[in-house]
Amino acid sequence: MGCSADELNPRTMRRVRDRGYRNHLGTVSELNIQPAVRPLDNLRLMTIDPALRQLASEIEDGAALPSPRCPDCGVGTVSFAAPTKFETAGMREARKHDAYDPDWEKGTFVMQGVCGAHTCQQVVVATGTWRVDYGTTGGYPESYADQFAVFYRVRQVHPPLRLMELPDDAAVNEALGGIAEGLLTAGAVLFTAPGLAATSLRGCIERFLSNAGISRKTAKDRFRPLDRRLVEWREKDADRDGIADLMLAVKWLGNTGTHEDSVLTAADVLEGARLLDEAFHRLYVSPAITAAAAAINAAEGPVTF
Ligand SMILES: [Zn+2]
């Protein structure tokens, strides 16, 4: 299973093979072009940063702030300082109203973080909106106002956070069908426009299929539906059934995101990213793990890689 050499751009694969690229997906061998056994610690899995899920939800004041993986070095994590709240003149005016209640409070905020890796120290800025509502931390409130808490919703992070660990090598990215660009776009608009992010993930599959030799267009130069392209790719190898199902689910999320009245959330997009992550894991990482196990079994003991 996986991509055979003839399904990928030959020029790209030659470059990849000649230079022995090593990235988060492993080497070209793990890409299943030249099956070989590799030490497992060379396999860096594409994983979805759990902090992204925290950032996709409202954060109650006093809760631990998420520590996402650094968008620059990808090694350190970003520690945020407490948010700075801003409010409008209208908000200050509203407090004078007779019927004023704490849950009228709302505004914008900014919080600044820095990567903990000493050699990086990338500054990351998050911004969004805050509102006041009943707190969820429990306990017995000492006053009426004590029942309320501030909730922050992040709308933008800069530099954009990465949805998955990306290869930083253009040749490998090209071999994967340009998914790196699509993932970067999805990460950049994740909190601002989740529908757009889901559409970007769908685009990753379109690009992947094009690079795998599955034509985008019919003989009459019309665009082919993604479903049909996926079926063609699936039928080339029985092992692709489950993988194609994962990609199909990402397609459906992308279709929903494309609609103007889409109610897709950042959490939905992260679910799509998880499915895509699993699809590529099965394609590029699992075969190498299986090969390593087979080598150990054949040797009936440890293997020197
Ligand atoms: Zn960093």
From TrEMBL:
Report the residue ranges that make up the DUF4145 domain in this protein. 186-276
Q: Which Pfam families match?
A: DUF4145
Query: What protein name is recorded for this chain?
Result: DUF4145 domain-containing protein
Species assigned in the record? Nocardioides alpinus
Q: What is the lineage of its organism?
A: Bacteria, Bacillati, Actinomycetota, Actinomycetes, Propionibacteriales
